[in-house]
Amino acid sequence: MADITVQLVSVDRMLWSGQASILTAQTTEGEIGILPGHEPLLGQLKENGVVTIRPVDGDRVVAAVQGGFLSVQGDKVTVLADYAIFADEVDSASAKSELDADDDQAKARAEAELAAVRRNSGS
Protein backbone atom coordinates (compact mmCIF):
# COMPACT_ATOMS: atom_id res chain seq x y z
CA MET A 1 0.00 0.00 0.00
CA ALA A 2 1.30 3.46 -0.89
CA ASP A 3 1.86 6.06 1.77
CA ILE A 4 2.87 9.70 2.09
CA THR A 5 5.51 11.41 4.19
CA VAL A 6 3.91 13.98 6.49
CA GLN A 7 5.40 16.73 8.60
CA LEU A 8 3.24 18.79 10.95
CA VAL A 9 5.21 21.81 12.14
CA SER A 10 4.27 24.90 14.11
CA VAL A 11 6.36 28.01 14.54
CA ASP A 12 7.72 26.76 17.87
CA ARG A 13 8.03 22.97 17.39
CA MET A 14 7.85 19.90 15.19
CA LEU A 15 4.67 18.12 16.23
CA TRP A 16 4.70 15.03 14.06
CA SER A 17 6.71 13.47 11.26
CA GLY A 18 6.27 10.09 9.63
CA GLN A 19 4.48 7.94 7.10
CA ALA A 20 0.71 8.21 6.74
CA SER A 21 -2.04 6.79 4.57
CA ILE A 22 -4.08 10.03 4.50
CA LEU A 23 -4.06 13.55 5.88
CA THR A 24 -7.10 15.79 6.12
CA ALA A 25 -6.93 19.51 6.78
CA GLN A 26 -9.36 22.38 6.96
CA THR A 27 -8.30 25.09 4.54
CA THR A 28 -9.78 28.44 3.56
CA GLU A 29 -11.31 26.62 0.55
CA GLY A 30 -12.83 23.82 2.64
CA GLU A 31 -11.70 20.48 4.04
CA ILE A 32 -9.24 18.59 1.88
CA GLY A 33 -7.97 15.02 1.98
CA ILE A 34 -4.47 14.19 0.75
CA LEU A 35 -3.77 10.64 -0.40
CA PRO A 36 -0.61 9.21 -2.00
CA GLY A 37 -0.25 10.49 -5.56
CA HIS A 38 -2.08 13.78 -4.90
CA GLU A 39 -1.38 16.62 -7.32
CA PRO A 40 1.03 19.34 -6.12
CA LEU A 41 -0.81 21.89 -4.02
CA LEU A 42 -0.30 24.93 -1.84
CA GLY A 43 -3.23 25.71 0.43
CA GLN A 44 -3.90 28.18 3.22
CA LEU A 45 -5.00 26.65 6.53
CA LYS A 46 -8.23 27.82 8.12
CA GLU A 47 -7.66 30.16 11.07
CA ASN A 48 -9.32 27.81 13.55
CA GLY A 49 -8.96 24.50 11.80
CA VAL A 50 -8.16 20.88 12.48
CA VAL A 51 -5.59 18.58 10.85
CA THR A 52 -5.99 14.81 11.08
CA ILE A 53 -3.25 12.34 10.18
CA ARG A 54 -3.77 8.59 9.80
CA PRO A 55 -0.31 7.10 10.37
CA VAL A 56 0.60 3.86 8.63
CA ASP A 57 1.42 2.50 12.10
CA GLY A 58 -0.26 3.77 15.23
CA ASP A 59 -3.26 5.80 16.26
CA ARG A 60 -4.84 8.73 14.46
CA VAL A 61 -3.20 12.10 15.16
CA VAL A 62 -5.49 15.12 15.57
CA ALA A 63 -4.25 18.69 16.02
CA ALA A 64 -5.80 22.13 16.27
CA VAL A 65 -4.11 24.64 13.97
CA GLN A 66 -4.29 28.37 13.48
CA GLY A 67 -3.10 29.95 10.29
CA GLY A 68 -0.33 28.72 8.07
CA PHE A 69 -0.04 26.63 4.94
CA LEU A 70 -0.26 23.11 3.55
CA SER A 71 2.15 22.05 0.81
CA VAL A 72 1.96 18.87 -1.28
CA GLN A 73 4.95 17.94 -3.42
CA GLY A 74 5.18 14.40 -4.77
CA ASP A 75 4.45 12.06 -1.88
CA LYS A 76 5.38 14.60 0.80
CA VAL A 77 2.95 16.80 2.71
CA THR A 78 4.15 19.63 4.91
CA VAL A 79 1.77 21.45 7.23
CA LEU A 80 3.35 24.64 8.55
CA ALA A 81 1.02 26.24 11.10
CA ASP A 82 1.37 29.51 12.98
CA TYR A 83 0.08 27.65 16.04
CA ALA A 84 -0.67 23.95 16.57
CA ILE A 85 -1.47 21.69 19.49
CA PHE A 86 -2.35 18.00 19.69
CA ALA A 87 -5.97 17.36 20.69
CA ASP A 88 -4.83 15.29 23.67
CA GLU A 89 -2.75 18.24 24.96
CA VAL A 90 -5.73 20.60 25.08
CA ASP A 91 -7.04 21.70 28.47
CA SER A 92 -10.76 21.68 27.59
CA ALA A 93 -11.84 23.65 30.66
CA SER A 94 -9.34 26.40 29.92
CA ALA A 95 -10.31 26.45 26.23
CA LYS A 96 -14.02 26.71 27.12
CA SER A 97 -13.31 29.69 29.37
CA GLU A 98 -11.43 31.38 26.51
CA LEU A 99 -14.60 31.30 24.39
CA ASP A 100 -15.84 34.27 26.43
CA ALA A 101 -12.59 36.22 26.05
CA ASP A 102 -12.49 39.69 24.51
CA ASP A 103 -9.42 38.68 22.50
CA ASP A 104 -10.55 37.39 19.08
CA GLN A 105 -7.34 35.43 18.55
CA ALA A 106 -7.70 33.65 21.90
CA LYS A 107 -11.32 32.89 21.08
CA ALA A 108 -10.40 31.46 17.66
CA ARG A 109 -7.61 29.37 19.18
CA ALA A 110 -10.04 27.97 21.78
CA GLU A 111 -12.55 27.11 19.04
CA ALA A 112 -9.86 25.23 17.11
CA GLU A 113 -8.69 23.38 20.21
CA LEU A 114 -12.21 22.28 21.15
CA ALA A 115 -12.93 21.22 17.56
CA ALA A 116 -9.79 19.06 17.62
CA VAL A 117 -10.84 17.50 20.95
CA ARG A 118 -14.31 16.69 19.50
CA ARG A 119 -12.81 15.18 16.35
CA ASN A 120 -10.32 13.17 18.39
CA SER A 121 -13.11 11.73 20.53
CA GLY A 122 -15.10 10.84 17.42
CA SER A 123 -18.06 13.15 18.07
TrEMBL record:
It comes from the Bacteria. GO terms for molecular function: ATP binding; proton-transporting ATP synthase activity, rotational mechanism. GO terms for cellular component: plasma membrane; proton-transporting ATP synthase complex. Keywords: ATP synthesis, Cell membrane, CF(1), Hydrogen ion transport, Ion transport, Membrane, Transport. The keyword Membrane applies. SUPFAM superfamilies: Epsilon subunit of F1F0-ATP synthase N-terminal domain (SSF51344). It is a peripheral membrane protein. Its main location: membrane. It is found in: Cell membrane. PANTHER family: ATP SYNTHASE DELTA/EPSILON CHAIN, ATP SYNTHASE EPSILON CHAIN, CHLOROPLASTIC. Belongs to the ATPase epsilon chain family. F-type ATPases have 2 components, CF(1) - the catalytic core - and CF(0) - the membrane proton channel. CF(1) has five subunits: alpha(3), beta(3), gamma(1), delta(1), epsilon(1). CF(0) has three main subunits: a, b and c. This is ATP synthase epsilon chain.
